[in-house]
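Possible regression after last week's pipeline update?

I re-ran a chain I had predicted before the update to compare outputs. Posting the input and the new output here so someone can diff against the archived version. Not blocking, just want to make sure nothing changed silently.
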Amino acid sequence: MHKSPSGSLGPGGLDLSQVFFKPIHNTAAPSPTKRHTKISVIGTGNVGMAIAQTILTQDLADELALVDAKADKLRGEMLDLQHAAAFLPRTKIQASTDYSVTVGSDLCIVTAGARQIPGESRLNLLQRNVNLFEKIIPPLAKYSPDSILMIVSNPVDVLTYIAWKLSGFPSNRVIGSGTNLDSSRFRFLIADHLDVNAQDVQAYIVGEHGDSSVALWSSISVGGVPILTFLDKQQIAYEKETLENIHKAVVDSAYEVISLKGYTSWAIGYSAANLARSILRDQRKIHPVSVLAKGFYGIDGGDVFLSLPSQLGRGGVLGVTNVHLTEEEAQRLRESAKTLLEVQSQLGI
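New output (post-update):
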């Protein structure tokens, strides 16, 4: 399944690259400090391939490894991407059902997950995903002990916790995609209401990537102007119900996409690539991602992963931003954490 050796097209496997290119005089070996970036994507379904495609088009890696249990589909996806080589930045693409293909990865992105069976409980589905992660995470940790794990599979917060436990990695090197995409949807809806560019809107959804997520209305700003403070000073009335409806639209948006096209893929592909860029290029940007949240904003009762605005760089999670929360927002965040802890306790972990 691996990519065939380059240059061996001549008779008897002659390495044509040695004939085609004539070396110049007084050369030296490449500098040992030259960084070779490798990303592995686990799971080549709609989400995994959207992430892989976005990584390639954004030139984020020198090498991309794909892993999936379905060998034929996996090889087909690898070949399909390789055939686009003339249109993309040069990236070595490999694929295998064997996790050894991921060796030496800087970043491992896990998208694999069990699909829900009609009538199946959420808890039973989660247990099957935990069983799947027991087969995925240990070999990733074995072959790339210094890598960063990014979990995209849902339910992302609990599975990020599971990945942390199974990998034995320090907490800064295990993150979940969390509410990074939810926050993008949030920014889009606010920008749409105000008719501005979404990049000029700073707004976060935190907590669980799911129904108990929390919209941080108190810290929203547009072009540096705090929105709610501005409205109060201008004595412009707004209804809390309007704000809640925007948050509800964020929560429901993934369900709408799924009901229309059967799955989500492109937005999460861009979201994951956005996180990969911040990590591998040490951008030190702030993203709402799922991190070990114990001790923040009064969250206690056990180890739990949920989304908080976090600074990301080459070391993974560099820190959590000290965003001011109103008491109501902090209480909702603690309730979100409690919801996740209850799910973990039901799993017996």
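Follow-up from reviewer: compared with the archived run. The two ends are 37 Å apart (CA to CA). Marking as no regression found.
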